[in-house]
């Protein structure tokens, strides 16, 4: 009785080889997990150390900080593209599905760290309210916002990793041949400065919670590390 090709391959390879191949496929899908904490609570005395830990974690993830505000506790990072199946040397994807998505689409991540006093809640927005605009510096509304550099008490840290997808405006995809795909031309009367306009836009399509937890685990490790005292310099010889 003839054996099927699949059974023949499995018979020659053996279980250890199949297990090794399966392990390689799992490793290639990425190293982000949900093992890290969703929120990290620190004391205000450790605020500076935790702030620096977030900056270091974003750099370690390949997303260096773009803006950092110690007063309001906000860190925004630069974006970084996500690995695809045609980049087997990259292990920064979250599962096989995201790796497949980024193979078909062009996606990137950016991370935002938010520090807030524990149990702090933003003001509720009413359905019908007067839009007054931003608070003037030094006004009563402006002073309501906490200042984490002088705040005393417990502080919570959260990381938000946003996935953005690259879109091309006005793309008319032809279902018969890719060579027939075209792009609409939007008239821009009055633009005579000679500048060019980017034809692609980055649009947020979701959050990467596994990446958030992985980054938070690294931050927790750095915060828990005991502070090392600076070495004492030798006294100069007379």
Task: Characterise the protein shown here.
By secondary structure, the protein is of the alpha+beta class. It has a domain at 28-120 and 143-175 and 200-225. The protein has five helices and nine strands; from the N terminus they run αβαβββαβαββββα. Strand 2 and strand 3 (74-77) form a beta hairpin. Helix 2 (47-60) crosses helix 5. The longest helix is centred in the N-terminal third of the chain and has 24 residues, at 5-28.
Distance between the termini: 95 Å
Tally of alpha and pi helices = 5
Order of helices and strands: HEHEEEHEHEEEEH
Structural class by secondary-structure content: alpha+beta
- Enumerate the spans where pLDDT stays under 50 for 5 or more consecutive residues: 18-29, 230-238
**Percentage of residues in helical conformation:** 25-40%
Q: How would you describe the shape?
A: globular
Beta-strand residue percentage: 15-25%
Major sheet size, sense and barrel closure:
7 strands, antiparallel
Q: Please, what is the average pLDDT?
A: 75
- The counted number of beta strands is 9
Q: What is the rounded Rg?
A: 25 Å
Keywords:
238 residues, two-stranded antiparallel ribbon, 5 helices, 29% helix, alpha+beta, 7-stranded antiparallel β-sheet, disordered C terminus
Topology:
Elements: H1 5-28, E1 40-43, H2 47-60, E2 65-69, E3 74-77, E4 80-81, H3 95-104, E5 107-117, H4 140-144, E6 154-168, E7 171-172, E8 182-183, E9 200-207, H5 209-224
Antiparallel strand pairs: 1-6, 2-3, 3-5, 4-5, 5-6, 6-9, 7-8
